[in-house]
Hints:
Layout (H helix, E strand, L loop, with lengths): L6 H51 L9 E2 L24 E2 L4 E2 L4 E2 L5 H8 L25 H6 L6 E3 L1 H4 L9 H4 L19 E5 L29 H8 L20 E6 L4 E5 H6 L4 H5 L14 H4 L17
Antiparallel strand pairs: 1-4, 2-3, 5-6, 6-7, 7-8
Helix pairs in contact: 1-2
Amino acid sequence: xxxxxxxxxxxxxxxxxxxxxxxxxxxxxxxxxxxxxxxxxxxxxxxxxxxxxxxxxxxxxxxxxxxxxxxxxxxxxxxxxxxxxxxxxxxxxxxxxxxxxxxxxxxxxxxxxxxxxxxxxxxxxxxxxxxxxxxxxxxxxxxxxxxxxxxxxxxxxxxxxxxxxxxxxxxxxxxxxxxxxxxxxxxxxxxxxxxxxxxxxxxxxxxxxxxxxxxxxxxxxxxxxxxxxxxxxxxxxxxxxxxxxxxxxxxxxxxxxxxxxxxxxxxxxxxxxxxxxxxxxxxxxxxxxxxxxxxxxxxxxxxxxxxxxxxxxxxxxxxxxxx
Length: 323
């Protein structure tokens, strides 16, 4: 005579399945995050290789210019110039009238455009753990128009402009906003390219981390603070102390998977833990020869205040400091 399962037996089986699911789901989630970390490492490896080819083509000089290149938008939908209109319209933006566009402006905000001839792929610049903000899929995101209007990427890979240098000439403030590299803007100027960060992760458009935005750079998360990063501000931001939320572990919204992927100037890529990143970052006093930082949560010193007073003799090779 056949015998059916009792209610107790069914409940026991369901309970066992639930326990196994509770155990395995975090494992699956961790494996998924690890895969995305691996993908970001691969992306930065490709970007680093493109940068090395660029250096070979431009006499060892990094990309730091500021120019207008028609149809250079990373978003193909913005590349519709037929030669009959003024291309500068798509290289300027009037904040008062909200007219114009940055879609064809090639400078530190859209530095990826310098490397596009070598990568032939926009996807390598997009962080696999955060993705590209697309107004069609994320209409409520306040930064979605960067891609649609300007062809800019958020949550991407950040460029260390303290190493490359940066210019801002189209706005008419070339003297004020000229940011020269303290290493000369060449790979030859780096004492230890294998130890110097050229690219980092950018996972939060509102973050002031090196993997975030340079203050005032319209939130595109494509350049890190210049002229320098100091440990106190980096630590405070990573651990949410700048938000008034003290914590012992890094904020997942600002640090992807508990660490930081770094693309070094010699082309190799490595994942660093946050403690390791902090240990290789100078303090405010070390960086500024004793000057006070403008705020514990301000990741960079004011360009005009610090300027040439950056202490480049301290040995923090991750940031290009030290002989």
